[in-house]
Amino acid sequence: MPNTKWSNPVEVGFGHKGSQVVQGPFDALICLMDTWPDLRGPRYVAARSLCRAALDGRKSPEEAREVFISAAKEAQLQAH
Predict the structure, then answer these.
(1) Which Gene3D superfamilies match (predicted)?
(2) Strand ranges for 1-80 from DSSP E
(3) Are 49 and 18 in contact, with CB atoms under 8 Å apart?
(4) CA of 78: how far to CAs of 1, 10, 55, 59, 75, in Å?
């Protein structure tokens, strides 16, 4: 279900690299794997897992959104 979208997109700021608007779990996975800084803690791992689970229909997209935002805060990124 790559087309699954969140009710509210999340804009993540990457400092001098600019920002990225994340529309749903598929976009979040791409962001986590390709753009994320080296600071990758337990919330990062949980966000990857929940985004995959949301794409498989095992978790809701909104659950993945909350954990993704949590991972951004863990990595000291601006997310709103």
Answers:
(1) 6.10.250.730
(2) 10-13, 19-22, 78-79
(3) no
(4) 27, 10, 24, 25, 9
Cβ-based neighbours of 17, under 8 Å, separated by 6 or more: 35
Cβ proximity of 12 and 25 under 8 Å = no
What is the dihedral angle through the alpha carbons of 1, 56, 32, 48, rounded to the nearest 10 degrees? 170
Return the pLDDT at 52: 97
Q: Computed from CA positions of residues 24, 48, 46, 60, in that sequence, does the dihedral angle turn out positive or negative? A: positive
Q: Which regions in the chain score pLDDT beneath 70?
A: 1-2
Q: Is 38 helix (H, G, I), strand (E, B) or coil?
A: coil
CA angle 32, 38, 40 (to 5 degrees): 65
